[in-house]
Amino acid sequence: MPLLDLNKITVGLSKTWSGFLRDWDRSLRSGNYPETTRYNYLLTAAQLGRYLGEHKALQQFFNEETTKVLGTCRGREFAQLRDEAIIRLYCNTGRACPRSATSCSTTST
Question: How many angstroms separate the CA atoms of 81 and 97, rounded?
């Protein structure tokens, strides 16, 4: 019996979160990650998804803070684009992303 059962891991998650986890699992499998590593990664992400789903009261706080983070820096360097992508990924998987900011990132060191 395999350790990793995505159906069990994604119980209680939205279809969006479940789809992201399935896509990520495909990516991890193509990178030849061991099943135990994939299980730990996916279980952690699923727990985060459940936590965010249960704590909708934090949504307003995160929207305001995310707007500030997105507006702090602008740029087209790798680190800036990477940071923006990460922040927007969090926005798209847990709450509405603020539309007022057009770029984000921290300065690269």
Answer: 16
> What distance in Å separates the CA atoms of residue 46 and residue 49, rounded to the nearest whole number?
5
* Encoded amino acid at 29, one letter: R
Unique residue bearing structure tokens 């800036």: 80
- Judging by beta carbons within 10 Å of its beta carbon (0-12, 13-18, 19+), is residue 104 exposed, middle or buried? buried
Domain ranges for the chain, please list them. Answer: 6-54, 57-94
Per-residue pLDDT of 12-62, as tens digits, reads: 888 888 898 999 999 999 999 999 999 999 999 999 888 877 766 556 666
Q: The dihedral of CA 46, 49, 55, 61: what is its sign?
A: positive
Give 3-state DSSP helix, strand, coil % of the chain, rounded to 5. 70, 0, 30
Residue 68 — pLDDT band, cuts 50, 70, 90? confident
d(CA 103, CA 91): 14
Nearest to 88 by CA among 68, 73, 104: 104
Amino acid at 45: A
